[in-house]
Design goal:
Structural class: alpha/beta
Strand content: 5-15%
Number of domains: 2
Oligomer: single chain
Order of helices and strands: HHHHHHHEHEEHEHHEEHEHHEHEEE
Largest sheet: 9 strands, mixed
Shape: elongated
Number of strands: 11
Number of helices: 15
Strand order of the largest sheet: 6-5-4-7-8-3-9-10-11
Length: 458
Amino acid sequence: MLGDIVISLSGVLPFLVIIRLAWKIGRVERLIIPWWLFLLGWVGFGGHVATIVAERLQYIPPGPVSIYYSTLSRAIMVLIAAVGMTDICRRICPQSPIPVYIYLPPIAIGPAIVSASQRAVNHSLIVQEPLPTQILYQGFIFWMLLSYSSLLLSRLERRLGVGRGFIPLSSSLLYGLVGCIFLYVASNFLYNVFSLAEYNTWRGVVTPMGVIAGATMMASAFKIGVGTVSPKTEKYEFITSGISEIDRELGGLPYPACNLIMGPSGSGKFTIINKLSVHRLKQGDSIAMICLDVSAPSVRADIRKLGLNVEECEENNRLILVEGYLQLSGITPKEKFTTSRDLTDISINISKALSLLPSPRKWIIINSVTHILHESGTPRTLNFLRTTVAKAVSTDTGLVVTLNHKALTEVDIALIQDLFHGVIETDVIEERGQLIRRLRIISMPGVVSRGVWRRMQS
């Protein structure tokens, strides 16, 4: 009984976890799951549990009737879950074909072939049609759609950068095997080859396999749910940023917090982080800037123009410029700190810089991850950003990451935004023949932002 309930939960709970993910990225147009899918899914699960309890209390005699109601309720439940997960996966993984056509032919012809083979050897039914055929189809649909849903979980896990998808893939294969065993056992029982005792013995063998696959599937779903939630900092100190538009609206930037600055090229992202760096260095903070889109010498020249004694800050390791841009042109950098463009190497250099920064108030600035996204792919970059955010939170370090979001899909933008505590958007528009830079605060911890565009003064 408990095994059946665990197997059934493995069909509905992962769907609820993925629904939560859909709500998180609900800013994407039409990624909304109808409320009635929840209701139908739980009705199916409740019907299955009620059938098990009714059989144990002898309200329903054990045999074909109880098997029919059990397989029907579970088929309804898993069908709803599979439909919902297909829609979500289709939107989050638009470039990956949905493997529904792999499963439809076996579902359509598998029970028919089994029934035909039983009739071919003149085995007689223990109950009249159409009950046996319905049982075979309903039960086989349940196991095969669980296999299908596990395969979708595998694709989502890889797409979101929270794993390689091997665990839900193994669950998918195990569910498929259990589905084939179900056809064999149930058909032999319905065609009077196995007795009810033999059928229950086979169920006792199959149930542990289903429980293992179900527990694996649920673990994978919860891994996705946990992996897509960024660590949260409990307390923030608002400190001036040196950017008047931000300081006037928020009273400063929250520290320690992880903030994303996103905007198209030329919209002022570099200006913001340069002014933030100079202002905070003058206030005694220390900063490590990972230069991925602009060379370290260019950054050094820009912040020197803002009145900072760069040499003194670098000598004391209060300013660490990690060169990661010049490698694109094949030039060997002469900087003290360098990194390749491999995400693992960048992560190692971030840890190294954190250990060298002397000030109690530290900042990591990554400028920027746009090209890294295209070079390494979205799943790996999401995992890198998730790890970096966790590292910053665990060391009470401020993190600022810049990104050209115009080069990404809406789903990717939403997933990346959800990793950060605060999001600032920049833009550039033409007004009366002049290009005007502006910014707005989309979200920021500890304050209510209105999302109003403000013209940048410089």
